[in-house]
Amino acid sequence: MGVVRYRCPTSGEDVTTAIETRSDVLVKMREKELSLWVWCPHCMAGHQIPPASAVLEDEIRTIASPSLTGT
Q1: Taking a C-beta distance cutoff of 8 angstroms, is the pair 3, 54 a contact?
Q2: Three-state SS for 47?
């Protein structure tokens, strides 16, 4: 399970949502092009986020970890 994150299309800031899901569910949402409606604390507006723009916080850590360790 991981927390869904996205980038605010208005401010460009990263947003962590309160939505938790598994990576296989996010993949299925991408296949069916199911959007998420979320509230943005940066621009104080709602956004319709395509699942292709959403990532899991765990995925970000996995991708970032090798570069942080220099491997």
Answers
A1: no
A2: strand
